[in-house]
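Schema walkthrough. Field components (list of strings):
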Amino acid sequence: MLSFVNDYSEVAHSNILNRLFDIQYDKQSGYGTDTICDSAKEKIRTACDCPDADIYFLVGGTQTNQIVIDTMTAPYEGVLAAETGHVASHEAGAIEFSGHKVLTLPHHDGKIDAGELADWVETFYADGNHEHMVFPGMVYISHPTEFGTLYSKDELVALRKVCDEFKLPLYLDGARLGYGVACEESDVTLKDVAALTDVFYIGGTKVGAMFGEAVVFTHHNAPKYFVTQMKQHGGLLAKGFMLGVQFDELFTDDLYLKISKNALDTAKKIKNVLKEKNYQFLIDSPTNQTFVVMDNEKLAELEKKVNVAFWEKYDDTHTAIRICTSWATKMEDVEKLIKIL
Amino acid sequence: MLSFVNDYSEVAHSNILNRLFDIQYDKQSGYGTDTICDSAKEKIRTACDCPDADIYFLVGGTQTNQIVIDTMTAPYEGVLAAETGHVASHEAGAIEFSGHKVLTLPHHDGKIDAGELADWVETFYADGNHEHMVFPGMVYISHPTEFGTLYSKDELVALRKVCDEFKLPLYLDGARLGYGVACEESDVTLKDVAALTDVFYIGGTKVGAMFGEAVVFTHHNAPKYFVTQMKQHGGLLAKGFMLGVQFDELFTDDLYLKISKNALDTAKKIKNVLKEKNYQFLIDSPTNQTFVVMDNEKLAELEKKVNVAFWEKYDDTHTAIRICTSWATKMEDVEKLIKIL
Amino acid sequence: MLSFVNDYSEVAHSNILNRLFDIQYDKQSGYGTDTICDSAKEKIRTACDCPDADIYFLVGGTQTNQIVIDTMTAPYEGVLAAETGHVASHEAGAIEFSGHKVLTLPHHDGKIDAGELADWVETFYADGNHEHMVFPGMVYISHPTEFGTLYSKDELVALRKVCDEFKLPLYLDGARLGYGVACEESDVTLKDVAALTDVFYIGGTKVGAMFGEAVVFTHHNAPKYFVTQMKQHGGLLAKGFMLGVQFDELFTDDLYLKISKNALDTAKKIKNVLKEKNYQFLIDSPTNQTFVVMDNEKLAELEKKVNVAFWEKYDDTHTAIRICTSWATKMEDVEKLIKIL
Amino acid sequence: MLSFVNDYSEVAHSNILNRLFDIQYDKQSGYGTDTICDSAKEKIRTACDCPDADIYFLVGGTQTNQIVIDTMTAPYEGVLAAETGHVASHEAGAIEFSGHKVLTLPHHDGKIDAGELADWVETFYADGNHEHMVFPGMVYISHPTEFGTLYSKDELVALRKVCDEFKLPLYLDGARLGYGVACEESDVTLKDVAALTDVFYIGGTKVGAMFGEAVVFTHHNAPKYFVTQMKQHGGLLAKGFMLGVQFDELFTDDLYLKISKNALDTAKKIKNVLKEKNYQFLIDSPTNQTFVVMDNEKLAELEKKVNVAFWEKYDDTHTAIRICTSWATKMEDVEKLIKIL
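Field assembly_structure (string):
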């Protein structure tokens, strides 16, 4: 059975597994105070051209969003996000669990618009009742978005400008960051992300790691006692070096970008074939997720041989599905899929 | 440099690492819905002789304590624990973060006493003002305790009886459970733990795994929508199968107990030598942690060659330290240590 | 200066103040355990034709919403409300502070639609990912709404049906309930409200009391240890009898409805004059709040003599304002206002 | 039936009730923005000799403690308090509900000791693991304490010094502050309290008001957007002027101190008689609460004629009770009580 169901189905890149054997019995100090974490952080600072970065490793995406948002906003503040943002809809209320409201903006293929953001904040402060409302305390974006789309550099610069104007930190959820910054259609690099945001995370779970996300506070702006706050949220790993190892490998010899490229290349191959075959796309996304509309009968056939993700009902005879590639997708599997499509 | 500083310094047992290679590119379904997790759970049910167990895997100990306590107690309830319990003192307020108070009882070498527990609860309900107080909602114990001590089976039965009388769930924190149930001095087996508690967790992080804890609800009593609540607390791993793999290996051919034995054997060797040399023990603990009082000059010498954990100042010329072994401790390192002691 | 700015500007009805003198030095027991509270509750049960009601008194509306929603929903549940609902927008995140998300539905003049509610819940459960989302746990409506509009009995019955189908408790925020149930245009009585909801509150603060809201759990369904939970939320008044006194007076000889009538009569007089003068209404509301569009120059004149509430900018030359009457509004002040309009 | 059961049994001082009539139909602006609140605040600033005070009015004591502690401490901080402090034991977990731990110190007749406080904080920072613990973020004291005892000025100065050394805000819970500062045995004035603390509250509920507490931030140190945070906690009263009125009256012509004196005078009379009659005191407290040990048979007789508060079982034949006077206690009732004692 082929599977293109998501990008977190496989264990991890071999370099990571090999490294685990290499250091199996070495004695590392606990809670991320080890030298491997130090090394990984330094490599990330270099890759981001961001010498002032405070870097911490966390285990998963929802955990990271909860901790970053909760620790960087005041108790009376919420986080602004697209209504389709992961924090707004698919984190089981993890943000509200920590006491913060998600303030939603309209989305445009998963992205928020700088002009609409500015309008929202201006309207908020113009409202005489705003002291009875949740203050905007942070702007959350995902890149790639939940729809696989990407901000252009101009769009990020525009968001940055609004954030500066209203003194709002800009937070970029990079659960699939590799698939964004390695994308040829995009003019946004890892360095741009570091330069234009206050905090972002580099997703490991979906890009070659067993698990783990690297949170980058871009200008020595990590919240006070961040390790304590990680612990308080249940997010401090005893064997923090397990996270260090993975990012140390991913940021050696550009591995992170190289394996991201594999997901993009395999996705592009699939997209091209779908275009040739005149499939309709639900959304035009340049990264590793492909959203396509399929005749229900055809889909029934397909699902006998391939696992794909149901996305939404399109109409009575069609369904939108997601075909997802990853760092681990093999071109031979893509060839097999293409024959079935 | 030798190290006996803690039991979470090494990566993981080889069986686990080998298994990761074996399944590296297999496609597993997400969030713990995979077949490896199913297999691991079944093995744990068998090992615990607990066919009615609901089992979930979480990443770390503080996370597990926070989620179990928060989801199994009502909002107006707190958790009863020894004043030295991990939840009471060393989790950075993770329990309070989720809204619950830790109600402390006196400790006796890290353990709570069934009689004192009963008295506490009786006094609580006798107090005419108890509607203005935090209700007792759960009893938390650790086994081994934070001091490496163990409850006897009689002691556990006595606690169970009090819990039954007051309808309080009994929760056992088994961060180092292997080092307890594999201990020859103890009459408490894994099956006893399952039979006498409402919920407990089998610690992986400190006993052979890279990370991970297996939460066992012993009689189909997992909180409703527990997966959603794990997600809400930031504790749901996308690649849940990474946890399944580890516990599947640890519960194959009694590996969990076998490697626990190694920690106990090496610790006993050290304890015996310390006794012979007439060192004073801070506390008499039968498991993998050894608490010993050392002359400061002697300690300064020792620390040139061995990492140990500072525990507390004993007096002006002595310090209490902890010497910790683990599943990974090599007897040759113990021999080297002994020569230095 | 005339004022029609809101309905919480005056102290309280004379019957309440007189009663305070009558009982000034009587010794009442604390925390709502007194006989005056008992008397008030019994009168409310009778007025609602609801002998099975559990009744508690709280101090203010936001406090009431927070406590009712938090104590009646599971931790993984949110509350469904109109996007314009008070809990969604004007409570400074009080609901999120207690860990719950407000799940918003479109509004129709401030009201939610039973069909849209059913669709929302059906779609939620149809989504394969719903375990990663916030579960619907309660339906919140306000009556009158934030726009002064009212549900018809048929609309409430339809909502009740959907709530029954999906086992969702229906909660009615009655901050201005008197102005709803005393309204001639409405076919919804206090008894209907009690019969069709699981919990509602009778607003005192805006209807004749100094402060206070009476929460009615309609079928002995008050959350367990509700007094303790009130205390935990900071909402338990030491002199609970102060609340009892006020509701005891308001529910003697139909005072609550009689004084509500005054707000409606004075509002109707204003609405009629506005209609005669061809003012445009922002929204057609039958209760004590009148939303009218005014030429900015005219408004500037008006505001020299009358305090009204700015509602929103209508266009470049017009503004929407709210003219609000209350239990205390004097017809002579209305006459003065009319001359100015 | 006589009653000396507590100090919140009666409505309020006549000056307050009369004022309510005087302003019954005046139109006040909402949420504490009215001129009566302004006047009350100015009178309090004068009475405290504290021109830099930010003052807010809240409804009750537990609410005040929750809001002050939550808004003045960081999320990773707890509050240090005597183990007998109200926040530690009798607020149903209101502090933990807002995410903070109460860190307890030993009590000495309800008071904490400056030396023990300093030791606690020093030990905390000396512990290598303190990043895994709840940081001390505030010191809470009550004055009078829950046992009716008082800090001396020297004791307060000593606490202030420790707080300065460790940069900890000092918070004084003055639920019964009047009964402390009006006490002849005490050298601590209202001005001393304002000079030596960072924040304190002046209790109204137990000292002449219907309800209400005045929070005084002594040096323009109110938390940012405090009104919004009050609202978020459910503690913002729509008719804020109701609180202003009461404190405006209490701080006119020293009313607050004068009526406090009544409670002290009546309590002293009772204490003197008890001493003459050789009753044993449970604790030696100089304020309005008298804790006395009574033979059970004698108590049974007493309770036929007088309501007093059960405090605790003393021994098999004796019970400790509390006899409580208030601003409203009549000397004639004291005379009647004395005859019975």
